[in-house]
Amino acid sequence: MHKNEFNSRLFQFLEAAPSPFHAVYEMRTRLQEAGYVELEESQSWSVKEGGRYFIVRNESSIIAWHMPASGSLVESGMRMVGAHTDSPCLKVKPIPETLRQGCVRLGVEVYGGALLNPWFDRDLSLAGRVSFLATDGKIRSERINFVKPIAVIPSLAIHLDREANKSRSINAQTDLPPIIAQLHGEGKLDLREVLKTQLEKQDVDGIDQILDYELCFYDVQSPSYVGLGDEFFASARLDNLLSCFIGLQALIDSDTEQGALLVCNDHEEVGSMSAAGAQGPMLKQLLERLLPEPQNRNRMIANSMMVSADNAHAVHPNFSDKHDGNHGPRMNQGAVIKVNANQRYASNSETTSLFRHLAEQEGVPLQTFVVRSDMGCGSTIGPITAAEIGVKTIDIGVPQLAMHSIRELAGSDDAVNLSGVLRRFYQEASV
Questions:
Q1: 3.40.50.1820, 3.40.630.10, 3.40.309.10, 3.90.950.10: CATH of 3-87+236-427
Q2: What does the domain layout of the chain look like in residue ranges?
Q3: Model confidence at 403, in pLDDT bands (50, 70, 90)?
Q4: 341 close to 377: Cβ distance less than 8 angstroms
Q5: Whole-model pTM over 0.70
Q6: pLDDT per residue over 71-112, tens digit each?
């Protein structure tokens, strides 16, 4: 696929996915269009050779897979790619409404390790999932997305904080509640009534009472190219919806006869320990259903490999000393193999060698990231998945700047090139 077409589809996906619930819905839609069949975890299954399937858990995590076209899954193994659907953000508290100086604010919790300064003075909207009691007496859930800007977190004027450019810190409790309305007199705003009205605008009928919600604020600015030659693109949630889309497109585009699987988990940014997270049982339970007999399942895992795809730190030209001198990945110079001696990344010499060989065959460059020896290192779902199911794993990712900001930056060549390598990985006969 040509770079411009790939990135155009990527931009559409990013804009349509302001929350993990929306991301999984978009992935589900694309999989169904490609002929994948959804299976319910609560039902019995009958999978066939060459069959294409997917499951969804919590509406925020998804696993799609392709059964081998012939022969045994035990012998074929699975070529697995993993990513995560969540991103750092501001989540609305259960009882969020406060009124101060005539302005209605919503209390928020910081989800994950968000950079907080970039959230100020942005046009914010609200999206997520709402659960309600329907008029037929059943409890239902629906995605919600206000789309238009409905909130803002205004900065304090420099005239009232002369030290703001030198030493300003942010108090997550008092400084971050977004303003969503202005009231006069004895007026009052009930968020649940606002949510009910918005769902009705989305043609959701039969709502009796809003019971609960999971909502996050997001920046409404659309993804866009940046640079005199469109060298880069900027968007919210590149970490890690970029990897979700790359893996999804690679799986759909791969004309493979091997066992192939994509898993995109929620809750990575807060440790992955949940029923739908990588440290939970979702992937393990799927493999147990596909191969109930333990010895066969263990043989299949021994013939498998996981590529954990999560964005990498590109070297920042203004802060290049934050990188090891020999390991500063640049945007548009290829995907990054991430290595850490303390197993914060799961890469080893065998898995990196195979991945390097695949990239050479695809004709695209690769880079390597190792954190400075005097700095701490982040982690991914790679070591978690490797430890949970015992599969050999490599950690890779597209290099980006402004990681965990409300708007991040990546190179316009890297995503499509990595998707080509992952497509080749899905088709690889032996791992």
A1: 3.40.630.10
A2: 3-87+236-427, 89-219
A3: very high
A4: no
A5: yes
A6: 789 999 999 999 999 999 999 999 999 999 999 999 999 999
Distance of CA 410 to CAs 30, 229, 332, Å?
24, 14, 8
The strand ranges marked E within 29-176 are 37-38, 52-57, 61-66, 78-84, 89-100, 103-111, 124-134, 139-145
**Edge-to-edge strand order for the sheet containing 224-226?**
224-226, 232-235, 408-411, 399-401, 312-313
Q: How far is 9 from 248, CA to CA, in rounded Å?
A: 12
Pull the structure tokens for residue 302: 């021994």
Most confidently predicted of 163-177, 182-196, 352-366 = 352-366
Residue 261: beta bridge partners? 65, 80
Q: What is the mean pLDDT of residues 374-390?
A: 93
Q: Is the peptide bond before 296 cis (omega within 30 degrees of 0)?
A: no
Is 89-219 CATH 2.30.250.10?
yes
Q: What is the residue type of 90?
A: L
